[in-house]
Amino acid sequence: PTYNCKLSGEATSGQMVTLVHAKDPDLEILKYLIVAGNDLQIFRIHPLSGIISLFNIVHLARPEPHVLNVSVSDGVHTSFCTVSVHVLLANRHTPSFSSNQLEASVEEGLPTGTYVTTVTAKDDDLGSNGKVTYTIPSDLMRSMFRVDADSGRITTEQGLDRESAAMWELPVLATDGAGRSDFSTVRVAVTDVNDNAPEFHFPEYHTCISANLTVDSAFLKVKARDRDAGPAGLVEYSIYNLQSKRVKHLFGINPQTGSIVLLQAAAQYEGQHFQFFVRAADNGIPPLFSDAAV
């Protein structure tokens, strides 16, 4: 015969597991013995009563059952039975991330499905109690990122734009089979690419200058903004598409500030009208630029 029994993973040494019982028509004294399946001495059996109890619980917990072969003998005849002990795995541990805040980065503008990072939480329980499932508990964040429930691999759900959001704080839950969970935040920095040209505050600039304006005096300042970061966001100014050589020698521009200055005495040009263009170019690779008329 086979005895099937279940035992809590929280069981302690000395706890009864089950009772095996045999009858002898001759009413002889029967003796019980575990003859196989107990190499680690996890169980012991009382030789007269047939009570099986726990002895060494160190190796008790495991997904597969412990199968014991038990004999009973009256000194002449021997019979055998099988005892199958299913251990209900204990949930002693909560999933644990290595840190409650993790760092990652991803370049802006990359396609959906771009790899970001992989999160890992450890759970020392066995079986389903130790299986960790990862989720993102935020509707907004799920629209931007995806986490694989089994592996913890995080990818993008859409292209990211650094100028809209340079940093995302992504919450991730790790939950085991018994419902215990841990929480970590993945800070995803969106790194810049040169995808924005400088933008002038105005498409055209108009001004008048006095014929008495002194040489090297600034009379107009243009300004352009580049929303990119780093060198790609640094703007330099230049004058181009000049109408004539005299304009080239008459006006200059500070490449860093955008201040336009007079290079020659203006009196000789009194009453005249000049038009030229100012270019604002960034330092990205390749550089982007825009123009404004003056």
UniProtKB/TrEMBL annotation:
Keywords: Calcium, Membrane, Repeat, Transmembrane, Transmembrane helix. Its main location: membrane. It comes from the Eukaryota. GO terms for cellular component: plasma membrane. SMART domains: CA. CDD domains: Cadherin_repeat. GO terms for molecular function: calcium ion binding. It holds the Pfam family Cadherin. GO terms for biological process: anatomical structure morphogenesis; epithelium development; homophilic cell adhesion via plasma membrane adhesion molecules. The keyword Calcium applies. Residues 2-97, 98-200, 201-294 form the Cadherin domain. InterPro entries: Cadherin-like_dom, Cadherin-like_sf, Cadherin_CS. It is found in: Membrane. This is Cadherin domain-containing protein. It comes from Graphocephala atropunctata.
